[in-house]
Fold each of these.
Amino acid sequence: MSEKPKALVLLSGGLDSLLATRIILDHNVEVEAVHFVIPFCRCDCRAMNKIAKELNLKVHSVFLGQEFLDIVANPKHGYGSQMNPCLDCRILMLKKAKEIADKIGAKFLVTGEVLDERPFSQRMKAMRLIEKEAGLEGRILRPLSAKLLPPTEPEKMGWVDKERLFAIRGRRRIPQIELAAKLGIKDYPNPSGGCLLTDPVFARKVREHLKHEGKLTLEDAILLTIGRHFRIDGTKVVVGRNENENNRLLAIAGRRQIPYLKVKDYSGPITLIVGKEKPSVIEKAAAITVRYSDAPKNVPVSVLYYNAKGEEREIKATSMRNEEVDKLRI
């Protein structure tokens, strides 16, 4: 061929995708990458920028917002172990990647997927379903498991050498770690990161939110990642855990005109009331606010309440007992 074929790599920043990228870069192929960001991803943009610089790689960054959240609320192919709609998420990413590939003239896509590493989305049957629904049958090369999978178009066309691909399978990470050492890759993230939707505690918040609200917006997604969450008489209450979260909650309260509370004269949390301003909700939210503040716990203290219009009112509240707090916690 007079020109190198071009490949588009799905680069998450994890070890598997980093290995896949290095493998394809060692072939006579022009390579660009796409990095997807989702609202619930524990992503490190600085690490991604570092990878792109070290590999001298052009990376297309794509944010999947409301389209992704609609999938979380109602996935066609269901959830994984928690609230993770892995199949639908993967299909969405590959459809978006296909659009980019078509624009830049990439002949095929490359992913770091490993056969049977993830029981929901990386089984053979799931991989083939994802390829079909994304309109990419035969055009996705998975270098780490290619010797265990049906031949793809880049292999058939001779764009890549199958003998220089691998036959890694299963959830053990040892083969990838050994391969990383051989390739001189030392700095890579711990595999415990990734999507918050796989975390049982966070998944419970999302599940509870959808039960009450029936939908998920970008503002909802942001709020779900902040603070302690409670449900009081049908109303969501969010309590900041540190200064950073307090500042973020104040910004959200101002932007969305959401009522909030804080203890007067003592350090403590910002507490948002996301819903109806019922007296019973305000009373209990104030007691929870005192509970997580530095104020005395056995006497009434002053709590400042700001309504949706920003108007201030001072109320008295005593710290809620731990057992009552636990009953209201999401």
Amino acid sequence: MARSSFLRVLAAGLVLTLGGAAGMAQTGTAPAPFPSQVFKSWALDCLVPKTGSNAGTRVCFIHHEARAPADPKLIAARAVIRHNGPDRKLVLIVELPPNTVQASGATVAIDGGTPWPVAIIGCIPQFCYGKLDLTSALEDALKIGHEMAVGFTPKDHAAVTIPVPLAGVTAALAALEQTGS
């Protein structure tokens, strides 16, 4: 999937995950574009929704696309971190293939540690998604860890674990804070 198409799908998922309709502002009085930045394994992107509770406001997030080991062209999962709600709490959003068993949920574990459960809260044709508050314990684990394992169960398959490298996540989180979004 081309980067711009990926960002549109990701933005749709972010808006759905956090409430509201999706759309990107292309013209008008939208805030100035913010350049994408890459921090080793993680990237920072900013978009401007046209509708919903964040309409006309720049929404920034960091993310990593985890590739399937058997097919490096296939995106097996996405990890996204962004601010959510009026208190601007950080959340970790996990996007999984659309054939994921919702009832099974998902997990994230840092460097083989105790997994954090992630309830799958919805699916759209492109992916299923769940979110987890980025507590100080989870944020600290991400910053000092080397790899996050995302576990889930696709329909008609055994449970899978997809590795998400954490190289660059600390710098990406710092850049996210600098955006003010």
Amino acid sequence: MGPADLRKIVSVLPRTVDPNLLVGLDTGDDGAVVRVAPDLAVIQTLDFFMPIVDDPFDFGRIAAANSLSDVYAMGGAPISALAILGLPLSKLGPEVGARILAGGAAVCEEAGIQIVGGHSIDDAEPKFGLSVTGTVHPDQIWRNSTAEEGDLLVLTKPLGLGTVTTGIKKGVVDAVTTAAVIGVMATLNKGAAKAARQVGIRAATDVTGFALLGHAIEMADGAGLGLELDVGSLPVLDAAWETLRQGIAPGATRRNLEHFESRVSWGPGVTEVQRQIVGDPQTSGGLLLAVSADKASDLIQALEANGTPAAAIVGRLTRDPQIRIHSG
């Protein structure tokens, strides 16, 4: 499903005026936030998808990390999760479902929470995810729309997950690379959020299906700013260059690039493969953080100290409303 499809679908939902609804649908943020007390707000988020790897346990780990990411992207701490599981029982059996849940539970344990319930159905295709509840102080919410002119954009996981996982499905990625990529996707954004809180940031989101391009534009639009991305500075999985050179890309890459094409000015040095990396949909991707230029080096150091898979300045937000992608 592309960005245009999603916006058309959710456009029918009513917009309720409620002073306690601190973050809702208007900015396409990562979760909803409702104030329940002067010093306490609740974050609600839900995410699930079909398997992108064969091993049920690893599928559960990735899906759980992906679901938890939205709470971290809002500046909150998860407190509990409900599981959503669809399984073709006649084909796979309950043992596969148990392994999926075990993988999800293992990642939730890393996050310091439990899966406390949920719902399952007999479905034609396996699906798994979590509805996560988190908490945050109402004055400390991170939004995707509060960046300021001159802020630098920092990314905390490498790109290329979409093309490499497609390559895994096609059987062209070796076992060592597969394990490494699964490790990246199953890594919580907990450490990245901790580092960002220590240093102080202005805006945040996580990079998922709309790719770096889509989520960065969403951040710029929310703040009424323009955007520059430097493809030469992007952290990218080594295997992603090879799969893209083989012509392996998920269909969402094309949809992402087509949706934003009319708005983007591509620099003369940007190659077709680099365009595809910018439009590559991520599963359980990293946080994209907007930070003032004077704090950027401190943020990079804090991210590295917290062991994030990447810590790279990839662009900046500009007064010029254009979306410019350049190389170097």
Amino acid sequence: MRRRGAQPATGARPDTRPGSLPALARRVHAPWRALATAAMALLLAAPCAAAIPAEGGGAAARPARPFHFSALGHPFRAATDENLLRRAITEANQDKPAFIVATGIKAPTEACSDRLYAQRRDILDGSPRPLVLLPAGSDWAGCRNSAGRSNAIERLNRLREVFYPDSQSLGVRRMPLTRLSANVKFRSYAENAYWEQGGILFATLNIPDNNNHYLPEAGRNSEYEDRLVANRAWLHRLFLMAQRRNMEGIVLFTDGDIKAHVDEGFSLLSGFSAKQDGYAPVRKQVRTFAEKYKGKVLLVDSQGDAKAAPAITWRGNLGRLGVAGEWETVRIVPGTASLFSLKDADAP
């Protein structure tokens, strides 16, 4: 006789009769053991990568679709014919760009009158595609009053009232913009605006072609220095935003060529009668930001050579496109090494 819970005596055989408890237990557990063995075999056979999630926690985001924009040069550089502006707008719209950026509304010899400003706005506002205007130096910097004195600041403020009354572009189809004037500290600088398309940041900066309106006369260059501070804050904001959002590229539109893409050994003061280079501060800042930026920076100005074939010139990740009096269309293919190219040229 054995007590309850006692082990069988050494050498005793378990009861293997068909109706015994040990035999029934083996028949019940055998299928589960088979399932467990099969599951373990599948786990061992599966590749290790399947058990480890991809970096970033999911599939990579698809790059934005390719698109293009058009940039108009300054059609009034050597003429006063409004038909040049009308034709440029019409032809640029035929390419069906995402938007158009135009530089300049008048020739230096034309009057700086409210009537002319309103007339040119009507032309620009008739663009079927969204149109962003960047003022040229001839639109305000050279203006004088009836006494022959400079009227630049007053005329610049009037331009802002006529062409930048809200946070929308010009054109039949409007495009929302963010203006520097939304910042209380820089409420006057409505001509500086930015917008985003396809993961690329676009922005305008008021940098006129007359040596950035730096005056060689003795005394304080109040307009130049105040605008320099505003542009410095604007550039800092743009690059910081592009870096934080990991944007592929930045396109900056200016009237004057700041020559940020030119090697340091080049004589940057050539062509200027002033002793000081008015573009030096902004050029230094753009270069400094571009060196720290992982994407590409394209500078577009209206100082192109009408006799030379248009091209984008690169210096590291900093490129420059000069547009003459006509217009150029820039193609953007996100997710590619070249990113920017002229639409009618072979991609590099």
